[in-house]
Structure formats: C-alpha cells, structure tokens
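User: Please fill in residues for this 438-position structure.
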C-alpha cells in the first residue's frame, strides 16, 4: 500500500550522526559498484517483482548493476539501523509523507528539479510532494494516488439504491448494506463501511483524512513563510470526524473490530463480503477485481462534504537519493529513468497486480492507454483535488497524535468529538513548536 507513513523515525539519532551520514562515502552500499535500491513492499510480492523489472530495465539501459531490497515490516526501523551503521542504501522508494522525517535526519540529497532530465514533464502537484519545509526538493516524484470509494455494486443493486452523491446518501447506503441482507444469505452478517481504524502507523487519521479534506477541513494549515498552525479544532474537521463517529456509534454501520484493524486486515474483511464500502486508494483495485469479481465492484468519487470539498487525501512515493552514496551519478540516472515514460509504464504494470506506480506523475504518460479498466479514471480525476501532507519537518508524530485521538472517539461512543479535537489542536500546536514550524 501502498501505502501509509510508517513508524516515526527514531529520534535518538543525533545531529552529529546526520552530519556524518551526509559526508560519508565509505563503509556503506556505495563501497561497490552496485546501486542498492530499497522499496517498502513485501518480499517476493508482485510489487517487489515489478520493482525488480524496473531495476533490470535501468541496468539494461545504463549498464549500472542494481540490487533491489524489498522490506515491508519495520521498514523505517531497519532503515534507521542502516543509518546508525553508516550503511544507507543508495536509493529508497518510499512514501511522500516520510520526506520530512528523513530530511531532518540528514539522510537525503537535494534534487535539482531543473537539472533532472524529464523533470519538466512531471506534474506540479507531484513535485509539491517532494518539497520540504525549506522550499527545496529532496526526492524525485515517482507515483501518485488519490482516494475513492470501492463499493460492492452487486449489493447496491440488490438493495435498490443509486451511487452515493452526498454524505447523506453514503450513510443511507451503509445502513442498507448493514440491515437489508445484501448478500442474500439470510443472516445479519454484513456492514456498510469497512474501516482500518486502528492506531498503528496512524491508520485512523489516514482513513479520516479524505473525508476531512472532502469537507474543507484539515489537521494543519500553512500560515506562510514555511510556518503552520494546528486546525484539528476547525468546525469542518470536527464535522467529518463526528460523521464517522455516528457511523460507529449511532448507525452502527462499521465492520466489527474496525477500531483495532490495519489495512491488511481490512482488505480481507472487504474481500470476505463482511462490508460493502471501502474508502481506499487504487493500489487494491486489481486485487479486488481478481478476488471479488470485476462485475461486483465499482469505484465512486468521495462525495463532497456538507461544508466543503471536493477533496481527498493525496499520497504517493518519491525516489529518494540517499546521502553518503559514492554513486551519485548513478543515483541521478536511476531517478531520471524511474520518472521517464518507460520507467513509469513498467511501474504501472498495466491492469495487473503489483503496480508500484499507481497514477503516473509523468504527464506524457496516458493512463487510459496503459490501463483498460475505466475505474482507474475515477482515481485520476480525484487526484486533481488531492491534498498531500504539508511539508512540516516531521509529519509522522502529527498523524500519529491525530490517529490516537480519532481512534479514541470512535471507540468510546460517549466521547465528545469537539472537545477531543480541541485537545488535539493543543497537542499539534506543541508538536509544531517543537519542530520549529509554528
């Protein structure tokens, strides 16, 4: 998944280590002539195999040997361990939301947007996600994604309802899926929403973000000059979180156990027919087409909220050129290949599973020409209004604090959402101050 931000990078690494990494040229992966590429994917997965094909194509084109290392569990922890040993990989393909954390550790080389071959062909929105708080770029955009609703079409037709166009429609469809036996088995064993509402890696906040943005809200807003202010207590943000609390607590249309689940579990809940509405990115579309059936699912835009929108969470991956490499020219060449039309097409992997490029960031690549499934177009259109995590020095603790608060108000139906979000505002203000970003 693609794809959420990981556990916060360990704060115990000192500034001295960061400086040392920036200048080290020996003792790391750069000590030989093989470009080491790390990607946050399950080993031996289809996505890892796609990454290997990308690297092999780069080697064929450039003559530079490569080694792909696919790691999913504890990716950031293992990256931290490599940093402590002054043995960072040459390239890391990782979430856009990790840029701030890695940059503040001194792990990333600056990328000159104008000097990167093909950089002028990449979308401005994707470049925005490669920019740190200092206004400089520390990654090459590689993949993008926005969010939409994947809905059990056969269930919707069974209960005789139209595609949801408002939040009221969405709540009504969820209620019908919960109470009208859409799978026809005669049992009360289905839910409307399936939600990864746990706190691990900030999932509750990650999920809620798209509805927050669809309602015109936010967690942190820019105030100018690279500074930010907390906005979790904004009425539009509160309204979105309260809408979801109502689904958990009043309408009871959310799958049981959601407050403890991550995306791995939630994917399976949706596949097993335990719920019929999943707000998620396009990276699971091919999987669900295969496991559920192409005629049984549809993709619908996230409805505009009553107080704002349209909007959805924007995410993706950057190619990060890691500090300390002795293969700086090869690093740049790999980044240029990855963002080229050829690199983007390899990463997209057409309609098959294992895509590591969800939506292409290269504007010369025709999505419809690469993928025949028209449902991808819904995600592409949503991307025009996508909202990326702001370029604060470290987004990880902000998302984690937000997830802890949101999870708590969904798990405890007696919780006052406004009071909880106001308290979160105070906590986020303190976090921004500690990052010298307020």
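Assistant: Residues filled in for all 438 positions:
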């Amino acid at each position: 998944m693609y794809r959420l931000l990981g556990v916060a990078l360990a704060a115990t690494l000192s500034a001295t280590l960061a400086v040392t990494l920036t200048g080290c040229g020996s003792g790391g992966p750069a000590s030989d002539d093989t470009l080491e590429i790390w990607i946050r994917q399950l080993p031996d997965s289809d996505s890892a195999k796609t990454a290997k094909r990308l690297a092999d194509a780069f080697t064929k084109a450039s003559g530079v040997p490569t080694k792909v290392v696919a790691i999913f569990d504890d990716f950031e922890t293992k990256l931290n361990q490599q940093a402590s040993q002054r043995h960072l990989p040459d390239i890391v393909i990782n979430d856009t939301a990790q840029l701030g954390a890695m940059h503040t550790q001194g792990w990333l080389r600056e990328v000159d947007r104008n000097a990167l071959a093909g950089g002028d062909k990449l979308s401005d929105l994707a470049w925005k996600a490669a920019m740190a708080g200092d206004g400089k770029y520390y990654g090459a955009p590689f993949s993008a994604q926005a969010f939409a609703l994947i809905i059990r079409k056969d269930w919707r037709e069974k209960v005789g309802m139209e595609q949801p166009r408002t939040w009221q429609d969405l709540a009504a469809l969820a209620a019908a899926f919960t109470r009208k036996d859409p799978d026809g088995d005669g049992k009360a064993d289905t839910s409307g929403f399936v939600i990864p509402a746990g706190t691990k890696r900030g999932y509750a906040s990650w999920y809620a973000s798209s509805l927050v943005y669809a309602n015109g809200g936010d967690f942190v807003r820019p105030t100018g000059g690279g500074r930010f202010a907390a906005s979790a207590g904004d009425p539009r943000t509160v309204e979105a979180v309260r809408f979801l609390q109502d689904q958990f607590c009043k309408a009871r249309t959310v799958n049981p156990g959601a407050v403890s689940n991550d995306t791995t579990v939630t994917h399976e809940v949706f596949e097993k027919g335990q719920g019929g509405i999943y707000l998620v990115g396009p990276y699971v579309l091919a999987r669900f087409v295969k496991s559920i059936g192409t005629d049984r699912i549809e993709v619908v835009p996230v409805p505009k909220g009553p107080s704002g929108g349209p909007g959805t969470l924007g995410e993706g991956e950057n190619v990060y050129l890691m500090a300390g490499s002795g293969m700086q020219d090869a690093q740049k060449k790999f980044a240029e290949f990855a963002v080229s039309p050829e690199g983007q097409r390899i990463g997209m992997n057409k309609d098959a599973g294992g895509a590591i490029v969800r939506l292409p960031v290269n504007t010369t690549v025709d999505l419809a020409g690469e993928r025949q499934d028209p449902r991808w177009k819904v995600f592409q259109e949503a991307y025009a209004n996508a909202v990326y995590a702001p370029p604060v020095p470290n987004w990880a603790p902000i998302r984690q604090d937000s997830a802890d608060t949101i999870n708590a108000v969904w798990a405890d139906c007696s919780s006052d959402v406004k009071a909880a979000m106001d308290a979160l505002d105070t906590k986020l203000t303190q976090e921004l101050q500690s990052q010298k970003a307020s």
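For context: The two ends are 31 Å apart (CA to CA).
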